[in-house]
Fold this sequence. Notes:
With 122 residues, the protein is mainly α. The chain has two domains: 8-56; 59-122, no CATH class. 41% of the residues lie in helices and 10% in strands. It is built from five helices and two strands, in the order ααααββα. The chain has a two-stranded antiparallel sheet. Mean pLDDT is 74; it is low at 82-87.
Amino acid sequence: MAGRRKKRFWSDDEKRSICLQAAVPGISVAQVARRYAMNANLIFKWLKDPRFAPEVVEAEAEPAFLPVEISPAVLHREAVETSGFGPPGGRIEIELAGGHRISAEGGFDPDVLARVLKGLMS
């Protein structure tokens, strides 16, 4: 019995976090299970438990306008990029509730960024 694994204990917060990661569109339960070196069936079991499963929003959220701020540094960089000097690509910074900030720079895929944001906000 030398190769036998020790049973791991997962706190409720860890289970919720893992279930949230597994619910992100474009991410499979198997990918999350590999990340944590665990069996995907355990995640599926947790997803069925209302204590750990992420809340599913049934109706589409109402569209809303969000404040947008363009800093002088961005305006200067755009002027440099359109003149043919400087690196190609763009930069976007998104400030979330709680002071968290997401930055994407260069050649990023807006669809992937939108899926990440949707996963974080659910």
